[in-house]
TrEMBL record:
SUPFAM superfamilies: lambda repressor-like DNA-binding domains, Periplasmic binding protein-like I. PROSITE patterns: HTH_LACI_1 (PS00356), HTH_LACI_2 (PS50932). This is Catabolite control protein A. The lineage of its organism: Bacteria, Pseudomonadati, Pseudomonadota, Alphaproteobacteria, Hyphomicrobiales. It comes from Starkeya nomas. Pfam families: LacI, Peripla_BP_4.
Length: 345
């Protein structure tokens, strides 16, 4: 009976190839000093035995350690709190791989503050994951980090014109288009106005959601007219005041799309106006709050992104880059989930 692949070691490969352990290690790590015919024997043994190197063990054996920093927003954004919890969980997994995570909380709505925080990380970390603002100062700070040899991954919100290594997050244009399709279909041919709220258009994810939403609504649901975009800074008090004003000033309001946070404020305003039965409300991120709003019929659909997947993906991307290891790109694609009351997990 053949041995399971998981039990095959480098010693088994060396024995099968008739070489020393040091020679087998040289071949597998591409180091010079091994004759071609000998290297070929080692590679044949690897293929026959189905050997797969334990990359984490190899890093530990070489004494390689990496330190990463996750730069996350301050504030009351519920999704960002979930993301911070998942980063903490990811740190436990990463420690077993000889890599460590620090978390820095910053006001990402303030470009100067965020840029200064990023500039202060040069020379202290091997990699950075940042919920980024698409602003010239922030782009310059990211580029300075990459020039200094620090890998930078943008998380949730991208800065595509920067020299960042990778973006970890959903396709936000597609998310906005999805929100418009849901709202348009739920409207069932009604005519009227639609409210659109973003945290700030300076966050790329919010701006892209806005673009996708207005594109579909204008092209496919011309009976629904989008009101001027409102900016909430992801604060519940602001969203409540914005929606209360919309409900007062736009009697033909058919629905609302919130591209950012602040869903508690919106739900409070809808409930206070007794509009839950006829007003369509589409928002983002499945949390304890949005789950409750769906169950109570205040909210109609939630477009979700998995905070745990994003945290783990950012860590995997940084670790693979720093260690020179392969990355499975398909594993790092963050999908869009749609939840209504009937399919809540």
């Amino acid at each position: 009976m053949s041995r399971g692949v998981s039990r095959i070691t480098l010693q088994d490969v060396a024995r099968e190839a008739g070489v020393s352990l040091a020679t087998a290690d040289r071949v597998l790590n591409g180091r010079a000093g091994v004759r071609g015919v000998t290297a070929e024997r080692v590679r044949d043994a690897v293929a026959r035995l189905g050997y797969r190197p334990n990359l984490a063990a190899a890093r530990l054996a070489r004494g390689e350690t990496y330190r990463f920093c996750f730069v996350l927003p301050v504030g009351t954004n519920v999704f960002m709190r979930l993301l911070a919890e998942q980063v903490s969980n990811t740190a436990s997994w990463l420690a077993a791989n000889n890599a460590y995570i620090d978390t820095l909380r910053v006001d990402v709505f303030a470009p100067e503050t965020l840029a200064s925080a990023l500039e202060g990380l040069v020379g202290h970390y091997d990699g950075i994951a940042v919920v980024a603002l698409d602003h010239p100062r922030v782009r310059a700070a990211i580029d300075d980090l990459t020039s200094a040899g620090v890998a930078v991954v943008t998380l949730v919100s991208d800065v595509p014109s920067s020299h960042r290594l990778h973006y970890v997050g959903i396709d936000n244009i597609a998310a906005g288009r999805t929100a418009a399709t849901l709202l348009g279909r739920f409207a069932g041919g009604r005519r009227g106005t639609v409210g659109l709220i973003v945290g700030t258009p300076a966050l790329r994810d919010h701006a892209e959601r806005q673009f996708g939403f207005t594109q579909v609504l204008a092209g496919e649901y011309p009976a629904l007219k989008v009101l001027p975009v409102e900016e909430s800074l992801d604060e519940d008090e602001r969203t409540e005041a914005i929606v209360a004003r919309m409900l007062r000033d736009a009697p033909d309001l058919v629905g609302l799309y919130n591209a950012g946070a602040g869903n508690r404020g919106i739900a409070a305003a809808i409930s206070a106006a007794n509009r839950a039965d006829d007003l369509i409300f589409i928002g983002h991120d499945l949390t304890d709050d949005t789950r409750r709003f769906l169950l109570r019929g205040v909210m109609d659909a939630v477009i979700n992104q998995d905070a745990g997947h994003q945290s783990r993906s950012a860590a995997r991307v940084l670790l693979a880059h720093c260690a020179g290891e392969p990355l499975l790109n398909e594993q790092e694609r963050i999908r869009i989930d749609i939840f209504v009351r009937d399919n809540l997990p």
